[in-house]
């Protein structure tokens, strides 16, 4: 098994840097816990100081490598879904051309994964993180309020079924094509908290290599829920560990993060590579979409 990625390998987490290039604003689903924002100070997924074009992503990467030569990973992790944005593929093509030695990875909700796998393989992407929060559509419909698929918008159970089918197909195919697949699952108290072990079994059978159970950050329609206590997360990880390898070091970082994740506070390189004053500009979840 090949690793040396700070978000998959515990040793690399403290030794190897990564940079998230925020080129992907559009998303094709709406998760109940997700509130994307540009210019905000918050340190969580879906946040970036700005959305940039692929050419600027290349410039930012060059600057970040000068400031932090331990960066070995070029990633796209939002603030929307990378596979729903053509800029993601343009960015990876530039990285492949100018920095062929860098490892490439992305995070996705998985809706378009199966369709995009051949292109990702061609671009040299090695690592995939798929966020999957339910393997039962009846639970999924409580988490996902909208799924945009092939020009149509689906809600409720139908949308959850489409998303789950595409996620499972994408994970299954990706693992058999040689990608290293990590599955992120957001632990949502009272929603999927009794369902995570079942997710672990299905992910193992689909071919995923590792599972990352993350505590809910109470936002969106789940803003009234409590964030799960550390002992709750530890308990469910212990239950899932005999089934599939577990990841314990996730920082739930921003879409423009840069540096070595295991080093705290870890924001110095990001601020140097993005030399713009921080201003809080909260946007509605849909305000970043191109449509």
Automatic annotation (TrEMBL):
Among CDD domains, the record links this protein to: Radical_SAM
Can the keyword Lyase be found in this entry's annotation?
yes
What InterPro entries does its record include? Aldolase_TIM, Elp3/MiaA/NifB-like_rSAM, MoaA_NifB_PqqE_Fe-S-bd_CS, rSAM, rSAM_sf
Source organism superkingdom: Bacteria
User: Hey, which pathway is this one from?
Assistant: Cofactor biosynthesis; Fe-Mo cofactor biosynthesis
Q: Which cofactor does the UniProt annotation name?
A: [4Fe-4S] cluster
Q: Which Pfam families does this entry report, sorted A to Z?
A: Radical_SAM (PF04055)
Q: Which residue numbers delimit the Radical SAM core domain?
A: 13-251
| A molecular function (GO) term | lyase activity
Sorted UniProt keywords: 4Fe-4S, Iron, Iron-sulfur, Lyase, Metal-binding, Nitrogen fixation, S-adenosyl-L-methionine
Q: Which PROSITE patterns match?
A: MOAA_NIFB_PQQE, RADICAL_SAM
The GO annotation for biological process reads: molybdopterin cofactor biosynthetic process
Q: Which family does it belong to?
A: Belongs to the radical SAM superfamily. NifB family.
Q: What is the annotated role of this protein in its UniProt record?
A: Involved in the biosynthesis of the iron-molybdenum cofactor (FeMo-co or M-cluster) found in the dinitrogenase enzyme of the nitrogenase complex in nitrogen-fixing microorganisms. NifB catalyzes the crucial step of radical SAM-dependent carbide insertion that occurs concomitant with the insertion of a 9th sulfur and the rearrangement/coupling of two [4Fe-4S] clusters into a [8Fe-9S-C] cluster, the precursor to the M-cluster.
Please report the name of this protein according to its UniProt entry: FeMo cofactor biosynthesis protein NifB
């Amino acid at each position: 098994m090949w690793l040396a990625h700070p978000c998959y390998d515990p040793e690399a987490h403290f030794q190897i840097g990564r940079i998230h290039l925020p080129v992907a604003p559009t998303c094709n689903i709406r998760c109940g816990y997700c509130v994307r924002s540009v210019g905000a100070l918050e340190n969580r997924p879906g946040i970036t100081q700005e959305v940039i074009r692929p050419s600027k992503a290349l410039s930012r990467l060059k600057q970040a490598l000068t400031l932090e030569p331990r960066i070995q990973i070029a990633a796209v992790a939002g603030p929307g879904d990378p596979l729903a944005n053509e800029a993601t593929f343009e960015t990876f093509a530039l990285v492949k051309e100018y920095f062929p030695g860098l490892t490439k990875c992305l995070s996705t909700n998985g809706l378009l994964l199966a369709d995009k796998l051949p292109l990702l393989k061609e671009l040299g992407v090695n690592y995939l993180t798929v966020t999957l929060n339910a393997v039962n559509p009846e639970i999924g419909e409580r988490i996902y309020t909208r799924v945009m698929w092939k020009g149509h918008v689906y809600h409720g159970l139908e949308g959850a079924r489409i998303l789950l089918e595409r996620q499972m197909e994408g994970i299954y195919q990706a693992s058999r094509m040689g990608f290293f697949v990590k599955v992120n699952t957001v632990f949502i108290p009272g929603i999927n908290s009794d369902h995570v072990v079942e997710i672990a079994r299905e992910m193992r059978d689909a071919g995923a290599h590792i599972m990352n159970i993350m505590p809910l950050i109470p936002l969106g329609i789940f803003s009234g829920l409590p964030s799960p206590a550390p002992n709750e997360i530890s308990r469910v990880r212990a239950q899932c560990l005999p089934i599939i390898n577990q990841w314990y070091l996730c920082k739930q970082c921003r879409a423009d993060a840069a540096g070595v994740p295991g080093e705290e506070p870890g924001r110095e390189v990001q601020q140097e590579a993005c030399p713009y004053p921080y201003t809080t500009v909260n946007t509605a979840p849909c305000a970043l979409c191109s449509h």
